[in-house]
Amino acid sequence: MRNLSLNLLLLALLLALSVLSLRFGDAPLSLGEVIAGLFATGSEEQRLIVQEIRLPRVALAWLVGLSLGASGAALQGLLRNPLAEPGLLGISASAGLGAVVALYFGLTALSLWILPASAMLFALLATSTLYALTRAGSTNLTLILAGVALSSLAGALTSLALNLSPNPADLQDIILWLLGSISDRSFDDVRLCLPFVLIGLGLLLVSAPALDVLALGEGEASSLGVDVARLRGLIIVGSALSVGATVAVTGTIGFVGLVVPHLLRRFVNYRPGRLLLASALGGAVLVLAADIALRLLDTPKELMLGVVTALIGAPFFLALVLRSRRDML
Q1: What is the pLDDT of residues 56-80, one digit of tens each?
Q2: Which pTM was predicted?
Q3: How far apart are CA 1 and CA 69, in angstroms?
């Protein structure tokens, strides 16, 4: 019952933030004008602002937050490591590199689907590499260092593509993946990533009951009937599909999958399976709140969403590391 109440509260907060996001922007709208724009009963200007500009932005905030929140919680449960997260472990950066490779070599001219496919492939490779390390009995420190190395390698290769980019248009597209943003998107972008995100989230949510059992250890989970190999495959593929698809459209947005599970874990009695849905909803709340905040900030130019989430997440991660160090003393 407590878990249901938490999910309903997060859903209500998400819906309220969605309405606020539709209201705020360069042309503020009242609640009545937003409703008129949604149902096309107002002026053409209101319809265009709400349906063509702000609604796709809200939809992408939902998809990005759901993907990052659920993937972060699932990876933490699978690896039994509270520091696991798509951005920190290099999964988001690797997915961004996949998108950059497709852009740099002009593969998107062949098909629009090559961009998300490339991003998901690179995300899958990064996730599989990290899990292979945990299977070899590595420590948490080794895992984090491997994630940092993957992220650095992906960043270096992305910077190389920037350095060698033949024209300014390609350069601007590549910068998108470095900073991360959901502005200036359309429903074409939403439709591009939506199927993969839904499939990825479905795979992650299906793994929830087994994750609760896995918390006892792999040996105990296997003796209780959990197919650990199948569970591993579900989470790796689910994370790669959902994170890779959103990165292909919005660029790299980090730390959401790290911050949200830690904030919500105590409210689900530290049950990894129950944390998945709550973290998905909480991730969407965080992304949408950050997007609203950056639009309300009085800056010469609108900040990129990836910059804002990094400013929130980096101090949180440092505080988490310091707390872990104190617990070890």
Answers
A1: 999 999 999 999 999 999 999 988 8
A2: 0.88
A3: 21
